[in-house]
Structures are given as structure tokens and as C-alpha cells.
Sequence to fold (212 residues):
Amino acid sequence: MPRFTHPRLEDVPLDLALHALADPNRLAMVARLAETERLSCTAAAPCDSIPKSTLSNHLKLLRAAGLIETAQAGREMINRLRKAEFDARFPGLLDAVLANRSADAA
Amino acid sequence: MPRFTHPRLEDVPLDLALHALADPNRLAMVARLAETERLSCTAAAPCDSIPKSTLSNHLKLLRAAGLIETAQAGREMINRLRKAEFDARFPGLLDAVLANRSADAA
Fold:
């Protein structure tokens, strides 16, 4: 059974959090998870054509930055955004990033 | 005479802006420029020991992200933060990043 490592938010440095958000695909995944509480890895993918290993690396980096939590649910891996914890660690940051992403997409 | 390229802020994508800020040295330079209006490249450096080529690359990336403007003033290159333009393009983003940096440094 795969085990995932999730950092304590106080151990996440600001530059790692920004790096995790500084990619259009990862940001699309974060935005999707901000809208839908829990998503399988496939459902969280930014597009259908993304290679599995690339998707896996993006999820790993999002976990390392304290942005998501991945847990096994039956045969699926389910991801959720650690919004409240991330917001407590980096007040206003995620909302500012997501608002700017929405403005660009509009 | 060196010539520097400065993008129009509307041409700067969000991921490039985040990438530029996702480095402790570049963020230290941005924070310093947010406090002091105009700084030479040396004065804007995050530390004395940083190699000139590294400093130059950091400044180049900050320019590409629309964060700073570099202009010749006599024999010096003077940098300033494009705060108002950056804020207009990415509302709330720079303030959220700088506030979180200050909180971490405190």
C-alpha cells in the first residue's frame, strides 16, 4: 500500500510554496481541488494527455509544499487541498494566487 | 551602453511572476527594493558573497517577470521595483508574498 509523506505546514518554506504554485499545470490542479473537495489523481489532472509520471511528480511537489493531502480510499488515491492549514501558514497567499489565475482565465 | 528589456506587464504570465518570487535570494532583493526606491545592482544584492553572474541572472529574471526596471545612471545601473504596475497586473500578490516573507523572517 503506498504511503505518502505530508509535511507539517510550519516546516514548509515560502519559496517552496511559491515554486509549487509557479506552474500552470500544478496551479490548475490546485484550482480544481479548491472547487471540489476530494478528487482522485486522475480527476485532479490538469488534462487527459498528461503522462502518469508527470502527474505523479506534480502531486508529489504539491504534497511537499503542504498544499495537498493524498490518502488511500479503497483502490483509489484521493487528494484534498489543505486550504485551512495552508492559509494559516501563509495568510492571503493562496487566495491572491487563485484570484489572479481566475482573472487571467476570464 | 547596456540595454535592458522590460516587458509590458500584461504580457507577464502568472507562473513567471510566481517563479521569479520563488527564490529566497530574489525575494530578498525584491523586499529590499520595496523598502528603498532605487538601488544599484550591488546594493540590491541579497548578500556580498553572491557571484556577479548569479546576481545578473537574478536581476534578468526579475526584469522578465515585470518586477523591476533597470536603467543606466551615469556609470551605474539603477534598479527600481515596478510596484504599481505589478500590483495593477497581479492585485494583492506581491503584498501577500512580502507579508509572508516578513512573518517568516520575524
Q: What stands out?
A: The interface with chain A takes residues 13-16, 18-19, 21-24, 27, 90-93, 95-97, 99-101, 103-104 of chain B (CB under 8 Å). The two ends of chain B are 41 Å apart (CA to CA).
